[in-house]
Amino acid sequence: MTAGAPIEGLDVGVYTIPTDQPEADGTMQWSSTTAVTVRAHADGCTGLGWTYAAAAAGDVVRELLADVVRGRDALDVRAAWSAMQKELRNVGRPGIGSCALSAVDVALWDLAARLLGVPLVRLLGRARDDVPIYGSGGFTSYDDATLRRQLRGWVEDEGIPRVKIKVGQSWGADEDRDLARAHIARQTIGEAAELFVDANGGYTVGQAVRMGHAYDDLGVTWFEEPVSSDDLAGLREVRTAVNADVAAGEYAWSLVEAQRLCAAGAVDCLQADATRCGGYTEWLRIAAVAAAHNLQVSAHCAPALHAPVAAAVTNLRHVEWFHDHVRIERMLFDGAPGAKGGAMHPDLSTPGHGMTLRSDADKYRQA
Ligand SMILES: [Mg+2]
What we know:
alpha/beta; Enolase-like, domain 1; TIM Barrel; three-stranded antiparallel sheet; 14 strands; about 40% helix; globular; binds magnesium ion
């Protein structure tokens, strides 16, 4: 076991991967996804972290954060995190700054576990054997056959008992198609699997309540961002009116923003994203704040990255098995965990989170 090794430096990579077909949700459309990776080095070991963000997040790492962590003890991850957060004051912690912080923090936790020769989930302190997942995709850009095929793949082929589709098409302007697709989804997965919907903030409050009642009739159990996650009162209003659990939190860039969602009574389950909120360090604190409000947490996207930290909290509901990121994490990283029977099972045989950059990832490299 090695301890007390100084961090020698950070490497940044920017990779852009085209989607397998055009994708859209209620309020955005896209044809590629960019991942910004950070590798942190100390005493012959390398830790890997990443965020899904614009390439500018990599510039923030190079320009502001690399010098802050260089020379620090690689095991003092929280001290490095605190110094990085302070360094971001004038450029802004939310948004790109928080994505940069997240990628470095994850790399440092991975590095620390590798230096100690233990699986990351052991270093964090394991709370559970299984990390439940839900299949997530169901883009509004899919035709009905593609939607059915994806849902059947998750439920029938992979045994995932919960799936999520996007609704709120065209900022809520196509309610008929939303309902038609939700019907198709329920018909495809049957009654045994749970059906979730995500409007990505595309509805107004009144519309979300009205649509929510229709989703209730289809047995929908999770209504994500029915209205903008900036509208805490609106989320709360929808929450009290519909049966489905209302969820939000994917744009909580910090502990404070997550705390506001909890304290406002805006959600039945808090979402948090370790690639955005400030890495594993902040994700764990957010989970603790949720617990203090008697709420569970659900990890937003990046399933491979979330596997170890999700296994380390007692109040976990599930991790989002997001179509794009499942695909990208396999294309960029060796050792990305699979799922069986609707859950991931973090690897207890490999140091760190167990993932490394693939040698053939360079074909997607932008910078
Ligand atoms: Mg969402």
